[in-house]
Amino acid sequence: MNKEATLMKKPTAKIREEIARLQEQLKQAETRDAERIGRIALRAGLGEIEIEEGELLSAFEEVAARFRAQARPAQGRKPATTPPNGAGEAAGRSAEA
Length: 97
Hints:
With about 100 residues, the protein is an all-alpha fold. The chain is about 70% helix and about 0% strand. It holds the Pfam family TraC.
């Protein structure tokens, strides 16, 4: 039996149940991600900054793009031991203040 024939035999109710289960899993995963990112943002001091949501979203998009670019393996490049742009130093100072 090929894959297509197997899918055709699965009742629609079972498929709907599976979709609902996967949607719940996705919702839980998104909640975990949001809580993790929120905790990190608060530790970095973003909770104390008055900033428009659109501006903050733009900054997050820039950070995401930077890390996506770093995720691609660069030939002959050694992994960084400290975050670029002194981010580690800034985080260290804010934690001490």
